[in-house]
Each structure stands twice: as structure tokens, then as C-alpha cells.
Amino acid sequence: MADILSETVEQEDLKKFEKIYHEQLSKNDVTIKAQFDYAWCLVRSKYPADIQKGIMLLEDLYTTNEPGQRDYIFYLAVGNARLKDYSKALGYARSFLTIEPGNQQVISLERTIKKKMEEEGLMGMAIVGGAVLAIGAIVGFGVALAKAK
Amino acid sequence: MSTGPYNYSYIFKYIIIGDMGVGKSCLLHQFTEKKFMADCPHTIGVEFGTRIIEVSGQKVKLQIWDTAGQERFRAVTRSYYRGAAGALMVYDITRRSTYNHLSSWLTDTRNLTNSSTVIFLIGNKCDLEGQRDVTYEEASKFAEENGLLFVEASAKTGDNVEEAFLETAKKIYQSIQDGRLDLNAAESGVQHKPSQPGRNNLSNDQQTNRDNCAC
Prior knowledge:
Chain B: It is a lipid-anchor. The structure holds two protein chains of two kinds. Helix content of chain A is 79%, strand content 0%. By secondary structure, chain A is mainly alpha-helical.
């Protein structure tokens, strides 16, 4: 139930950082910290719409604040993986690793993403298998109908 | 997540906290991989590690959240304290400032975890005796006054690393046995996973029967 891609933020924490962000937004003075804290909570939400919003905030930070890019790329990889956009997630992880090749945290994230893909690949096959059975049943039903005529 | 039989009976949640650069991630890496990371970059947000250990004959899975020490992450990393059964609080014996900040880390831990959370103080980098800035006696006294377990350890040589993680688990397990830690409480940081004995054996038996079938 717990790894970097499946743990979820508590609603009260999300609300807390959302409030800070919105207060600053209303004054048109959002600090990098408030935006990052809120985005970090959003990408850990169980709701895809929140994660999407978190990704947008991180992409915005990435283009406006160079010193923090390392943090943003990492959580962009996490957010995209949580949305099951695995190729994009792996792209972020790889671009991180071209700059810091030995970073264990990112290597471990890459491994977790690949594991998720594998698990879901198998699940995908199971669904295809199920569909084949269903088609088989329909064909069988058709044959039975034809015979009845 | 998985519906199959678990190969452990308990899950304990740990957090690792302390100033930046004290070696939190290196301790985690030494514990999970039995290797020293020589060039250890700053952790981003939180890092996660697991290892299955044995406590009093029971298999226990440790889920360890290693928090970034940099101040800018501190607001959000506080949300990972909730429901931790064990907290490893780390300072660097060669940098006095990391020791001086312990009371602030301890306050956070006490405020954000529950009363049964086991707190273990680790003085890391004890291989660097020549650069020592905090005496063993002083830290030991601090630990005693605050009811903390304490060792000096080295993520580099591996000294006392196993001990710190395992002693914490033993203490948590004791709390369960004593009934001080309520397994049903949402934020105990412990999950009990009843094992399913015989399930594997059954399928093995069926396999054997099939193999023996003459037809």
C-alpha cells in the first residue's frame, strides 16, 4: 500500500497548502515555496484532476525558477507516473539521470515506475484474455442460434 | 495491493529525520542495500525504502520514509510523521549545529506522532573520530533525559546501523505485546497481516497429485 507512487496526501494537508497558495494568489504574490508545497501535495492526491493541476504548477515553476528544477523534474516524473503516463514519467527520470547519473532516489523511482508498468502490462493481458473469452461466448451463442434455426 | 498470502506478519512505518547532510539517506541505503553511497546528493522531498526483518520469530516489513533535511521541504515532510511507529532522529557527531537542532526535531516528532512512537537517536559518522564535535556522554545524557534510545553509528562502515533499525522494531513489537500500542488505532503505524498458512502447501499438494496421475 505504500511506495512513492501509491501513498496519498491527507486531505487536511492538501487543504492547508491550498489555502496558503490561494491567499497569495489573491494578492497576486505567489511565492515559489507556496506553489511548490501545494503542487507537491496535489501530485500525491488520489484524484487525477488534482495531480493534473499539480503537474501544471510544477511545469510553470520549471520554466520560471531554475535553481529548483531538480525538485520539479522529480515530482513531474512522480505526477505523470501516477496519471499512468509512464513514457512521460520515464522521460523526466531519464533526463534527471543524464545530469545526475548515480542518483539513487531517481534510479529507485525509475525502477518503481517500470514495476508498475509490468504489473499493469500483465493486467492488460488479463483484460484482453477476458475479451477473447467473451467473444468466444458470443460466437458460441451465434452458432447455437444458427443450429436452432 | 496484492491478494496473495503475505510473507510477513506486520508492517511498521518508520520515518528518518534530522538536519541536512547528517547522512539519513546513507543510513537507509546501508540498511536496505548493505552498501555505502559515497556520493550522496540531497534528497528531494522524501525517499522510500523497505526491508523485511525478523523480530521474536515474526516477519516484519519495515516501510521507511526518509525525509529531506533541507529546510524548504520541511513544511510538507511534516505530513509524513503521522502514523509513524518508529522515528530515527539523526545528527552528525562532527557537526555540533546538527546536534543543537535536535530539540526542534524532537518537538516536531512529539507533536506529530503518537505517544507510543519509538524514537531512536543516532549519532552518525562515528568513523570520523578525529573530527568529533559532540561527545558520546553528552548525547547519551540528552537521550536519557528525553527517554530516547541512542547509538552512535556509521553509515560508511555499517557500524550499529542494523542495531538501530532492529532495536526500534523490537521496542515497537514489545509495545504491541504489552498492549500499549493499539493495532486498531488508525495512526499506530503498525499493520497486522495475518498469514495464511497451508495455502501454498495445498496448491503444492494438488500439483503433486496431478503429476502422479497415471492417465
